[in-house]
Amino acid sequence: MKAIVVTPQKPGVDIREIEIQEKGEIRVMTRLSGLCGTDRGIVNGDLDFARPPPGNDYLVLGHETLGEVVEGNDRLRKGDLVVPVVRRGCGECLNCKVGHQDFCETGKFTEIGIRGAHGTMREEFWDSEENLVKVAPSIGEIGVLLEPLSNVVKATRELESIQRRMLWRCEDSTYQCRTAVVLGSGPIGLLFSLTLKTMGFNVIVANRRPPSSVEEEIVKATGSIFINTSSEQLPEMDLLVDTSGHPSAFVPLLQKIRKNGALVLFGTTGKERAEITAEDVTRIVENNVVIMGSVNASKDDFQQGGNLLVTWKEMYGEVMSKFITRKVSVEEAPEVLEHKVPGEIKTVIKWK
Fold first, then answer.
1. Is 299 known to sit in a ligand binding site?
2. What cofactor requirement does the entry state (predicted)?
């Protein structure tokens, strides 16, 4: 079986024939593998937490996956499109035991293609039904977006839960009087913008540069606004979502978050510092501002994300396909894994 493999903490990526003995009753043929910053961080040897499964000296990459069932059961049948859940629980803490491994308390979880478990950048894999999410055939190739979208669904769900501390909705019970600013216009930023727009927020997508033609088309079609912060000022906001991971992007905006607002931190870089002043702390305290970090997702978040993709495909049609800016063959994968392609939103590897 052909697979894309790495040696964690060592730069480089290889295409190799492998044989893996796996547990699981469902056999899945990989159709598309999405590429993201985590994959590239592992390939470049930058992520210390990446590790192979026990007893292996290599790791099969891949955690953004659209697959097709080849051998199934009564619920997942041959031909069904599926997406695997990335994080697998520790089996010890209560959160993991009830399907919320995204809140694992022991840190002993594994993540396919990242930490302690082989991923799905290969021709096929076996998995358990509990780890697979069936997606509607109508969404087709954009099903590969479900893994990153599940993380966005989880973050917005947690935000709503926290904001029930008071009355945050508007007089008409919606969020139409609230403004959300999303920093970053990559795939996660755009998925946040669509999710928040669907919830009813007035959405601004912000970056330090003009939008690419594809970014502009997606933002315009979905009814949001794009602001280039190098030449325009952002207004006050009720919600600030940072997908960049750069403190220099969101720290100066703390003063623009309105009373009872929230800051959601999603992006990570580990390569920058920015100062939070005593005045910033005072403003956060006096205005009841929430700062929330979010990572990973549960199976329920994947399922809810699948429902959103169906809705968006019906609402926006071919605009959703614009998220996939490039498809490459397996043989071309090492090159695009090492270097981001200019103008890229989502590059995918096409297997069959």
1. no
2. Zn(2+)
